[in-house]
Amino acid sequence: MNALRTAILRGARATPRPGGTMRGTRPGDGFVFSQLRAYVEGDDPRRIDHAATARVGALQTRVYLEETALVLAAIVDESGSMRVGRKRALTDAADEAVRAWFGALEGEDQAARIVDARVVRDRRAAPLVHANEPFRFGSALAIAVRALPRGASLLAVVDGYDLPEDEMLARAALRFDATVLLARDPWRDDLPLRGFVRLRDAESGRVRRVFVGARTRARYRDAAQARERDLHDRFRRAGWRVGALDERDGRGSLLRAFGLPA
Fold first, then answer.
1. Is residue 2 pLDDT above 80, yes or no?
2. Are 169 and 230 in contact (CB under 8 A)?
């Protein structure tokens, strides 16, 4: 059984909204019209087609098939700050999560990976392609809003250093079943540095020499944890499903975001 796909489909039909309401992003109730036929005892009275009944002169009911085809889309931050980690780079965990995401595809499901300024729709290529241009979350999200159908399931794997306005985040969450895996700072709990050290900026490459003492480590820990909480709150307010990307287990991070055992 494809537990992740089932969870994605279920979540797309009952997405939490600001204010505690639930409103699915997939159009309708998850069913598509198949045919009309004569009413038989036990049919749902709400499915009676009154116009057809009037034409035929006998009760007619609408038959629906469950709509299960999904569009799974992904946006992945491949900037320099995602190439750090204690044991391995966050980008490795992100790749794991994306492979698991597109691995949930079945049947008529469609893939859409937004890379640079294009949408890769090949199901085999989508988990494997990589960016050649600097990552811009806002630009990628704008492409998603323009190119993807309403009700698509969108996964964003980002570190939160390049976020669009809250209005754009909310707009995406209204259009899609939107999930974000926020990359967890590998040193959020413990900065393993002592004394005078050389630090290199992961994005710019600039290096400077600083002194790291107990007070500095405590300030860093508190700031990193506060930033993580703020980012999670910001996405939740916008209507996104939020999970944390752990460098040790990208696939498990994705499963946990959907309430599945890792």
1. yes
2. no
Distances (CA, A) of 120 to 81, 125, 127, 212: 24, 7, 10, 44
CB atoms within 10 A of CB 15: 22
209 burial type by CB count under 10 A (0-12 exposed, 13-18 middle, 19+ buried): exposed
CA–CA dist 165, 92 (Å, integer): 28
The DSSP line for 41-59 is: TTS-GGGB-HHHHHHHSS-
Q: Do 107 and 38 sit in the same domain of this protein?
A: no
Residues 144 and 78 in one domain: yes
pLDDT in tens, 58-67: 999 887 544 5
For 44, other C-beta atoms within 10 Å of its C-beta total 10
Encoding tokens for residue 209?
A: 């020499």
Structure tokens belonging to residue 191: 């900065």
Residue 215 sits in the same domain as residue 126: yes
Tell me the β-bridge partners of 17: none
Distances (CA, A) of 262 to 71, 85, 105, 122, 259: 23, 21, 19, 27, 9
Q: What DSSP state is assigned to residue 82?
A: G
> Model confidence over 167-208: pLDDT tens digits?
999 999 999 999 999 999 999 898 888 999 998 887 788 899
108 with 212, same domain: the answer is: yes
Tally Cβ neighbours within 10 Å of residue 195: 8
Please give the structure tokens belonging to residue 175. Answer: 């259009």
Which residue is it, tokens 């469609």? 110
Residue 59, domain extent: 3-66
Report residue 4 CA to chain centroid gap.
13
Residue 249: alpha-carbon gap to chain centroid: 16
